[in-house]
Design a protein that fits this description.
Elements lengths: L2 E5 L2 E4 L4 E8 L7 E7 L6 E6 L6 E3 L7 E6 L4 E6 L8 E8 L7 E2 L3 E6 L1
Parallel strand pairs: 2-11
Antiparallel strand pairs: 1-3, 3-8, 4-5, 4-9, 5-6, 7-8, 9-10, 9-11
């Protein structure tokens, strides 16, 4: 059974940095597109970032472009989201995702809370 487990969330102040990790187990995701989505209170879940299986292609939501960086370590079966210059509007539950193709979301993690105070 494939499992995605996020970690690294927490409470920080505006301007701080956090790095989220997503550890994958149960199967090999080296060819899968991996990513992060988030859901703020009272809002719909939204796309944050995506990285291809090879790591050569990335995509970001406009709201995080230039501040967040997605990366993956295939040997460790782990995906990261480095978040810099955090803003209160980044407060949300962040979910790790995996898809067999660039546009698919086949697997989701349980989420990790990120709270940014002003």
């Amino acid at each position: 059974q494939a499992q995605l487990v996020e970690s690294g969330g927490g409470l920080v102040q505006a301007g701080d940095s956090l790095r989220l990790s997503c550890a994958v187990s149960g199967r090999t995701f080296s060819s899968y597109a991996m990513g992060w989505s988030r859901q703020a209170p009272g809002k719909e879940r939204e796309f944050v970032a995506r990285i291809s299986g090879s790591g050569s292609l990335t995509a970001y939501a406009d709201s995080v472009k230039g501040r967040f960086t997605i990366s993956r370590d295939t040997a460790k079966n782990t995906v990261y989201l480095q978040m810099n210059s955090l803003k209160p509007e980044d407060t949300a539950v962040y979910y790790c995702t995996a898809g067999a193709t660039w546009t698919r979301y086949d697997f989701w993690g349980q989420g990790t809370q990120v709270t940014v105070s002003s």
